[in-house]
Design brief:
Length: 150
């Protein structure tokens, strides 16, 4: 069993301790962590690393499927943007601090003009990974609530 599979398994157990919703993220320079060139939008990020276990690829697959099926119109209209970010690539490590990440994560980010207005980490993805229907319901409910301002 690889080191990353062990880490992913342990993170499933510990994921429930995350609280989730936070104010604007700040980068290492104290400025807003992310910028949007197209004004207000909701970005659904999947943060991952070079080392990917089957659980990690399943999170990506399930999240993408929810967005492409349940939120297809919002994706088409640019209300929601799907972005995958490898935090191991040069220049992306700051996301770990910006969003208080310790593992692969799905994070919802609302931009307002050029800055991050608010964000929410979705930690239950690890707990629901073995139940696709519950995973789908969780992502659907969280994205819907986030779009509604919750």
């Amino acid at each position: 069993m690889s080191k990353w599979m062990v880490v992913c398994g342990l993170l499933i157990i510990g994921a429930g301790i995350l609280t989730g919703t936070h104010g604007p993220a700040k980068g290492q320079d104290g400025k807003d962590a992310m910028r949007s060139s197209s004004g207000n939008e909701t970005v659904v990020y999947y943060f991952f690393t070079i080392q990917r276990c089957p659980s990690c690829t399943k999170i990506e697959k399930y999240t993408r499927e929810v967005l492409e099926s349940v939120f297809a119109q919002e994706l088409k209209d640019g209300i929601i943007v799907w972005k995958m970010v490898n935090v191991d690539e040069p220049g992306n490590a700051h996301y770990m601090e910006d969003f208080q990440l310790f593992t692969k994560s799905v994070v919802l980010v609302e931009t307002s003009g050029d800055s991050v207005a608010r964000w929410k980490n979705l930690p239950k993805i690890w707990q629901l990974l073995n139940d696709q229907s519950e995973f789908t319901r969780y992502i659907t409910d969280e994205v819907t609530a986030f779009l509604g301002g919750e």
